[in-house]
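call fold(seq) -> tokens
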Amino acid sequence: MTTAKHEAPPPRSGTSLLVTILLMAISALLSGYITSTILDKEYKIIFAEMQKDCHQTQNDYLSCRSHAAEETTMWRIYADQNIRACQEYVERHLGEDILAYKLGSDGLGKAINRTLEHEALRFELTQSEAKATTLLNSNVILNQEVEALEKDRAIRTRKIKDYVTELEDAERALELRDLERVQCDRYYRDLLNCEESLNQAQQDKVNNKAPSSHTVKQLKDQVQALQNQGKMKEAMLEEMGFTINDAKKEIQSWKVKAESLLEKVNFRSRRDVLKQYGPGPHYVQITLSQEETILLKMAPLDLMSHTIQIFMNLIQEKMYVGGTFLLAREHILVAAPIDAFDPENNQRLEEKMVEEGYFPDGALLFHQYSPEFPHEKYTVGFSSTGGPLFYINIQDNIDAHGPRHIDNEGDVEGDPVFAEVVEGFDVIQRILALPRNEDDSLNTR
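ret:
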């Protein structure tokens, strides 16, 4: 759009001025008309463009709306499919999850039960460890008590031997007393004879048959000496009787104490075996090699509690590891923690036995023997020294190793029998078939 420029005319008269103003007005009107026309065209163009844009926008809107409806329909169909698929997926996986939950619940229950069982086992293990610790402490205390009992037993044994010696002396004194009593009886008869002679002398005096004064005095002195001697013998015999009675009472007291001590040792031995190895029956396996073993079944615990405890302690302490079967005779097969083929190993075994107090005085505190578990074939017993050497009876040895009487020794108590062989008889026969030396010792392992 253009605008006409007009230069101001020079001043004229009033008519010119009016014309000029009129021209300017017309010019302004023309300019306004032209401007209005141009603006109207431009407006119409703009309006037409806007109307066109509006129609285009409306068309686009309708197209978009149609497309949106189609898209919505498609998305709705897709959504419905997805919803159904999701429902199926959710239902399927929910079923699986429910099943898994049930399985998991069962597994969790089992896991909880196992955890509880594990905790219970751990608690039992803790208790077992505490019991083991207590048992070890108790074992240490028991060993100390056993050592003290062993010392006390040795002291009591010496005292009993002393009392036995005193009793034997008293018995010999009684024999002497009997001899003296016989002598006293003879003296008493002599005294009666003297009194009779004295009475006869007095009677002779009455009958004017006066004996010599020397004879009378001699008879009186003899009677007085016999009386004094008889009183001394009676006092001595009475004192010896008191001494013998006191000795018998003391020996009986020591016997009661010894029996009480043996009962305590048996009770504690039984208690410790039950704590350490359970109620039984108890078995011990002797392993010679991977292929050769001998299985022993222990005797009833109530019969041989102390002997069984000592043997099982010897096994537990591995005292026989490195030992051998060293002697085979027709009636027994002997084993011990002794190695006749290796001096160094034998020295080590002997030092270990001495260190643990099992040698040379034996492992048992006292001998046990029960006629309910005698020396029958394939039973196992300790030697007369009380172990740790033991032997297997190859035949019935009740007469040879049970309670018996030996000349010049008197009554002998039986060797302790504490087990029987239940497996490995072929191994025993193989050992019995090995070559032997002249003293029946085995000359090969």
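Residues 14-206 form the longest helix (193 residues).
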